[in-house]
Amino acid sequence: MDMPTAWPLWRMLALALALLLGLACAQPVLAQADPDREAATAVGGVSPDTWRQVRSGEVGPNFRDSRADSTYNLINASGESWRQLRNRWVSPFGLIAVGGMIVVIALFYVIVGRKDLSEPRTGRKLLRWPLVVRSIHWTVATLFIVLALSGLNLLYGKFVFRPLFGDAVWGAMISASKVAHNYLGPLFGILLVVLLARVLKHNWPKRHDLAWFRQGGGLVGKGHPDAGFANGGEKLWFWLLATAGLAVVASGFVLDFPNYGQSRDTMQWANIIHAVGALGLTAVALGHIYIGTIGSEGSLEGMTTGYVDETWARDHHNLWYEEVKDQAIPEEQLAAGRPAPDGGDEAASRPG
Amino acid sequence: MAQMKFMCDAERCIECNGCVTACKNANDVEWGIQRRRVVTLDDGEPGEVSISVACMHCDDAPCMAVCPTDCFYKTDDGIVLHDKDLCIGCGYCLYACPFGAPQFPKQNAFGERGKMDKCTFCAGGPAESKEEEYEKYGANRIADGKLPLCAEMCSTKALLAGDAQTVADIFRQRVVQRGHADGGWSGNPRADADNLAYDATRQG
After folding, report:
1. Nearest residue, CB atoms, A51 vs list B112, B179, B185
2. Which residues in chain A have Cβ-Cβ distances shorter than 8 Å to B68?
């Protein structure tokens, strides 16, 4: 019965003791209310090291970003490098490369002119490119031109067409360029690989290719240097496409599929590789187009009809001609719709 | 004309994300997009610091420089805006931006990102009508003579928005009155106990 009266007294004592203890512990804390002492022990302000870390783009383990799924650091340090590379280097030098190539080709055509056949045509034809290669070639070529034009528009269009046509036309133009580029690009990439695989057998480098280059493909000295099914220049174009071309395709895939969540930095590099490679290939492609069309007599028909004249074959691909000359068929027979049973690049499967 | 700027005082930001919420609300921003973000450095450690970031309306804006469509423009108030009708969603502004400000509603195959969205300093954007402007870009508080809602609602007044000179004056005043050697952000080695906030007091 006396328990209830004893409890409050015991509690009061305990409470007093706790209060006293608390007061004792609180003394140093209260003393810190003095501004001088507080400043002496306070955690310093944001240190220069913090900002150096931010500037370097580095993200520590205790970095938090309130934005959902954000993978961004506070300062995108590589963004400015990408901008400078693209705007100060890739853009002007790409223009110099492509524009310079156009000027050089025009001058060459005016001064040197077309490469004519050395003798009159014999009228006997050799199958050079079967239908399947021609189909893939022209599809890849068309896609290349569409991609080159839309790509050039994405890089330079705003300086030309926006002031020229106004926002409405420009808006439609650049939007179409982007859509065409992004959807046709992967198709080009796949077909380029197919084409490269199909003509790889002709393009293994040979010793006589060195002589071909030493003679500038026939420009230096007199007479045609030796060449098999593909000459040194064609092999160079092949290997450019097999290296730089595939790099452009690969970097294009990186840029075209942001759904895989590749980082901003990855896409900056992909963009530079893509632009440098594509501008370089566009410049070289102008040379390829020139030689294949108005630059040399009798070349284009090989890729349109599939057949070339004996004289052309002897002029440009003497080693190949020696292999297949007995398969030549008169053009009358071709016109009558009775082409050679086999031949073309199949018959020349011996690499050369 | 004014030169509009944001400034976040990292000594004051308490990572409440009020600015983020205010912005979402004022501009009715699309789902998945957050025009303002709060970054915390060294979270949970001594020296932890938070800072609110959005488009900083750069003088020499990298997004403007790299845009293939040239859809960006600068208003007379120094605000960087963009035309969503011209935007093709290529993502270049995102590659270049120092602050991660440009965002895209989608991230799909074949570079389908949709139209870029970013902070407009609550200044809307190019449109035929007020409704269209609100639909595409959000509020145009500047036209009503008001500052961005994020800064207006900042509970600690860490985030300041307005003319660069005014913002700088307020911050300078703070640095001087804080009264400790490193009152600003800079860790200025010339500032010491006898010469508080050295550079701040010597600015014009």
Report:
1. B185
2. 154-155, 157-158, 174, 178
What are chain B's domains?
4-152 (3.30.70.20), 164-202 (no CATH)
- B126 at interface of A, judged by CB pairs closer than 8 A: no
Q: Each residue of B144-201: pLDDT tens digit?
A: 999 999 999 999 999 999 999 999 999 888 877 765 555 555 555 555 544 544 444 4
| pTM of the predicted model as reported, rounded to 2 decimal places | 0.85
Strands A307-309 and A329-330, sheet pairing: unpaired
- In order, the DSSP letters of B88-156 are ----HHHHH-TT---B-S--BGGGB--S-B---TTB--S-SSHHHHHHHH--BTTTTT---HHHHT-TT
- Is B86 within 8 Å of A103 (Cβ atoms)? no
CA distance A37 to chain B (A): 12
What pLDDT is recorded for position A31?
A: 44
Distance CA B101, CA A264 (A): 13
Substitution target in A36, A37, A58, A72 with the highest count of B β-carbons within 10 Å is: A72
Query: Residue B102 and residue B80: Cα distance in Å, rounded?
Result: 12
Structure tokens at A34: 């003095």
Q: How far apart are CA B186 and CA B71, in angstroms?
A: 35
Residue among A154, A182, A267 whose CB faces B110 most closely: A182
How distant, in Å, are the alpha carbons of A227, B48, B59, B188 from that of A55?
57, 17, 19, 17
What type of residue is B48? E
Cα of A21 to nearest chain B Cα, Å:
29
Tens-place pLDDT, residues B19-63: 999 999 999 999 889 999 999 988 888 778 899 999 999 999 999
- β-bridge partners, B49: B41
Q: What percent of chain A has pLDDT over 90?
A: 69
ipTM: 0.88
CB contact under 8 A, A178 and B89: yes
Residue pair B27/B137 in contact (Cβ under 8 Å)? The answer is: yes
CATH topology of domain A123-346: Fumarate Reductase Cytochrome B subunit (1.20.950)
Chain A residues inside the 8 Å CB shell of B69: 158, 162, 170-171, 174
- Measured CA to CA, the distance from residue A241 to residue A284 in angstroms comes to 10
- Angstroms from A174 CA to nearest CA on chain B: 7
Residue A128 · residue A307 · CB < 8 Å: yes
